[in-house]
Amino acid sequence: MTIAVLSGKGGTGKTLVSVNLAATAKTSIYIDCDVEEPNGHLFFLPEGVQEEEISVKIPKVDNELCNGCRKCVDFCKFNALAYIKNKLIVFDEVCHSCGGCIVVCPEKALTEKEKFIGKVQKGTSGQVTVYTGILNTGEASGIPIIKKLLAEENMEENKQVFIDCPPGSACIVMESIKDADYCILVAEPTLFGVHNLGMVYELVKLFNKSFGVVLNKCLEEENPAEKFCLEKNIKILGRIPFDTKLGTLNSNAEIAVNKDEKYRDMFSSLMKTVAKEVRCNETTTNP
Amino acid sequence: MKIAIPIDEKVLESNVCVSFGRTPYFLIYDVETNESIFLDNSAAASAGGAGIKAAQTIVDNKANVLLTPRLGENAADVIKSADIEIYKTTNASAKDNIDAFVAGKLSLLDEIHAGFHGHGGN
Amino acid sequence: MKQLLILSGKGGTGKTTIASAFIKLADAKAYADCDVDAPNLHLITGWNAEPAKTDYYGLPKAEINPELCTQCDQCRQNCRFDAISINEKYVVDPFACEGCGVCAYVCPVEAIAMIPAVAGELMLYSDGEKAFSTAQLKMGSGTSGMLVTEVKKQMKSAAVDAGLAIIDGSPGIGCPVIASLSGVDMVLIVAEPSVSGISDMERIINTAAKFGTKTAICINKYDTNIENTKKIEEFCKKQGLPLIGNIPFDSNAVKAINNGQTIVDIDCASGAATKKVYHKTMNLLFEKGGD
Questions:
Q1: SS3 of C142, please?
Q2: CA-CA distance, A186 to C161, in Å (whole number)?
């Protein structure tokens, strides 16, 4: 079972929820797809970390073969090539690795080379396998890293998988939830929180995902996010109260369920609710 | 000698455009003949890599000198590979900057800002 | 025009809350929300009128004409983004397509066209005196850096005479952040005293340093973890970065925001602290020798 945890904006508690659920499940896999700001590893401090560099293919020119026809320069939609003083220049960081220049070159003067854009780390923390994707500073797209993180060989059959998604609803989030069986949307009790919850709500609906909401940082006051869920008839999976102790544990990158019985109970019951929802959805979709 | 300048309007008295890659027009001014050519900058609408494409335009129009307030890393690479000299404009019109350059009053642009990684400057 | 950009690295540290307070305090004539993935500033800046909207086009997307397609599979084999699939006929996944045009080039029967695609919407609120520029990226679109550039351009052209512009940045360190950084005079980083927040703050400081932009830091909700606050203070000292204020956690802040107000509209501790940060920021931004 693969569960993706997402939210429209950052800082709502995606990592709190996904890390603690992964730690609550007996044996599980935690995958950090927030490749621009991966934080889950700061909580898990995984051991025995193996690292794999992730690369994309970019063009390399043989200036002996290049006849200066500029077909590649004209073709490139990303303006990653320039032809100056009888020499072709490739701008690596502008290149989107579409391979178009190689296809259009009549002289076969272009070949490909690897360019590293980031890495994937795999380690273990107790019974949790921790995958972390890290995008190098200045690289534009983390999608190749996410594809690698969510590759099938990482998904072991009988383990629960928790995906910590990037914030927002851009294409990188779509890539992260593509194969998830269930989505947990984490929302804050503010006007901002509701606005952004609305956006991810549209996203999971578009992808036909089963989903529910966890309300985080709940205060005594009226909760606009809760109101939104009631209006739209969205399943509320659980409420996490605003709690200074939980806040402190979390801000120290401690896994709350390993520190305090109270939080273990809270996340276990959340896990049960989620599992029930997933089963329930399975029966309705495959009777 | 030909001078290239990014400009906001197709007149000699135009302001110098603050963005090199996304300027609407370029002025190519020939110092010997006093001839002005105004070019549309096709790079302005690019989703990315505008500086590179704009620089290619300058090179293809055989400019020897570029006058600009700022320049990104990638565009500077293109301009420098073509041995075009880059001078920093002042807060005056294109015409005044050309006169200042001819009088030797402009200084070389030594500050190249880190590129915008193909995502457009301002 | 002096431009101040408010950034955080990590999301949810209070960027927009602080940006909205600054806009109020400065009575800013020009401001923008560059968080085009999840814009929020419009929720509390009190504009009632509808904004002027403009469609924003990213790169065009491929479309296959099934009438012409001979199912030769060339397009699918050459697509690097796995955007083409066979579902009885050949179809393009518009969310995966990056608009590179390779499929249209390799198609032997010209069955593929590149169709302009709306990737988002630019919005401009303006009453002749003030201008607020913002945008919303369409779900699943990826080219937000360019849209950020458009948001800033729209703000500048709508408020040419404004002496100060306040820009709410986007989270992360990727392309939208780089686009929001370009051309600004100063960056204020809103840090949060958590291990994650510190890690993200360091990444954003490195990015700002690459641009050589003047940078100052304030710590929001500093009292939620005093030890981590101390760590940030030490970090700033070591790096020679000005730490210009600490703002306490304040449940009144949530109340204000939920009423559509800024934290300086009500009398509260976070609002008072933000005022101090504001004055120090303005001193740094307008100090002599800058620019």
A1: coil
A2: 42
Tokens coding C250: 């304040």
Give the distance from residue C269's alpha carbon to the nearest chain A alpha carbon, in angstroms.
18
Q: Please list every residue in chain A whose beta carbon sits closer than 8 Å to the beta carbon of residue B78.
A: 82, 84, 89
Whether the predicted pLDDT of C72 surpasses 70: yes
**Residues pairing with C63 in the sheet:** C113
Q: Look up residue B72 and give its amino acid.
A: G
Residue with the two structure tokens 């290049």 = A66
Q: Which site among A39, A72, A179, A192 would you substitute to test the C interface, given the most C Cβ atoms closer than 10 Å to its Cβ?
A: A192
Cβ pair C192, A216 in contact under 8 A? no
- The residue of chain B nearest to residue A73, with distances taken between CA atoms, is B53
Least confident of A159-163, A269-273, C92-96, C141-145: C141-145
Which of C173, C123, C118, C122 is CA-nearest to residue C140? Answer: C118
Looking at the predicted structure, is the pLDDT value of residue C236 above 80?
yes
SS3 label, residue A70: coil
- Cβ proximity of B54 and B76 under 8 Å: no
pLDDT for residue C19 is more than 50: yes
Q: How many CA atoms lie within 13 A of A65 on its CB side?
A: 11
Q: Which two tokens stand for residue B82?
A: 């073509």
Integer Cα distance of C271 and B52 in angstroms: 45
Whole-complex ipTM: 0.83
Q: Please give the structure tokens belonging to residue B120.
A: 């457009």
- Provide the pairing of β-strand C118-126 with C131-137: antiparallel
Partners of residue A61 on adjacent β-strands: A110
What's the pLDDT at A26? Answer: 77
Q: How far is B45 from chain A (nearest CA, A)?
A: 11
> How do residues A183-221 score in pLDDT, each as one tens digit?
999 999 998 999 999 999 999 999 999 999 999 999 888
Separation CA A20–CA A212 (nearest Å): 17
Which ranges of chain B would DSSP assign to H, the alpha helix?
A: 50-60, 73-81, 94-102
Distance CA A274, CA A185 (A): 12
Q: What is the DSSP letter of C210?
A: H
**Which residues from A are below 8 Å from B77, CB to CB?**
89, 91
Helices (H) and strands (E) in chain A, counts: 11, 11
Taking the C-alpha atoms of residue A51 and residue B109, their distance in angstroms, rounded to an integer, is: 42
